[in-house]
Amino acid sequence: MPAAIDYEAFREEVRDFALRNCPPEIRAVVASYRKLSRKIWYPWQKILFEHGWGAPNWPQEFGGTGWDTRQRVIFDEVMAECDCPPQYHHGLRHLGPVIIEFGNKEQQERFLPGILNGTDWWCQGYSEPGAGSDLASLRTTGRREGDEYIVDGQKTWTSHAQEADWMYTLVRTSKEPKKQQGISLLLIPLNSPGITIRPIRTIDGWHHVNEVFLDNVRVPVANRIGEEGQGWTYGKFLLERERLGGANIAPHRMALERVRDMVGKELAGEDRRAERELLNHRLLLAEAELLGASELGRESIEAAIEGKPLGMLPAVIKLCTSVTMQTISQIALDAVGDRLAPRFKRVDGEGPNAEAPGIEWVQNYMYARVRTIYGGSSEVQKNVIAKQLFGM
Asked: Which amino acids are annotated catalytic?
């Protein structure tokens, strides 16, 4: 019988490692809410990989830690508390488990090592114009010719495509009565002839997302995961594997405490007392929301440990934290007021204004607008909750 795990000792082990090994310049980027990119993520992933912690959610036989659910959650919480970057999710948290579960041995040997050590960078080709929340309406096609697929179509809102080496993507390989059928999961090198990547500039000034155009792109059948026409099943599995991600409330708590500290500094003095107390009251309400989400996260973790279905818990947590983080970013902006108002006209995440004092609060406010859209919009989450509660 395996020895019982001392979770508090494990928490302190992770904290000690994070504080000793995460470079200060990387932690500074996280603490100031600047954009994370490959040049930030890769050095940290290399450090974790060399310590044997490269893939907390993978089995040991594939190079993972073999940690249980509670250990994985503790790891994510402590890393956030120490201002360490969250691990780049597309390879480690999304695609990796799919290849482990459904890929063949050759695919596992070919793709998993580069994901694990951080040398191969992935992006997700799911959303299309007209196929976002209703992903099954995707129209990108993969026409088979011998041992290749000829892929044509367009993907949009593709995060990090500008710095990725590969894209895992859903394409329609046959026409079937149900739109969820006839979809396959392909792995496509982004340096393939026929691929064009165009940036989409977002309101915060950063380059997060892209359009990806595929024009007669040849993809080997060997790059298809699992069976042809079963991509919808694999795509759902991919998303299910990360449903516990929302249980980690630590990044949101860190943001709230930073805003609370900033309110105290920006609105110091007796003459600003009324403003300060009003914003602190709003922060207390936001904190109560996060405490509720944290308790739901705890329930999710316990359910996962016991092998029970998570039901609507992830949807409720996503809905709650999305709105609360928008509220927190609004409070931050209200605190700095007119001092940063001119920066709304000059936000440029990668230009000369990027290091301007306080610019992170403007960018954070703007970026927070998308929280109720990405990863499943609030409307989608409400539908999930309604189906669970009322059988709609």
From this structure: 242
